[in-house]
Amino acid sequence: MNKLFFTILLCLSILACEKKGNTDNSPQKTNVSAEEAKLVVDKWLMLWETYDSDMLGDIFLQSEDLTYFSSEKEGLMQGFEQLLPHHAGFGFVAGGKKPELSLWLENVETRVYDGSVMVGGVWYFGDKSQPIDSIPKGPVTFVLVRNKDGIAKIAHTHFANY
Asked: What average pLDDT does the structure give for the chain?
């Protein structure tokens, strides 16, 4: 009887460990979905509606891996630490303020790749009541990945002017 009991207990323990092992070793979700990318880009648009520099960490990858080409500044910015002074130059402040002009996107396209998402579109920055042809605009590209905590963030941004 003891032998049978220990054999059953051993089998149940092995099965429990295998099941746990499969759960622990299952691949973590690495692909950023188009829906997640849209939420992050919507947060980025909210950033421009509020000029709240406190939002930068919710949107961008907070590491040296972040890269950013601005349409207003020459060269490649590298690392999250360069975003705050760059956005402060546009008037962004902690807690935000009401901006005088609007920024919006049109012709947005999203492409999902293995492990990342690219969102591209045309940015417009100005007074929405003015004729569209008189408003500054240009292409923008965002690349989104998961951070170390598994949260979708912008890892690269590239703005240009038309």
From this structure: 86
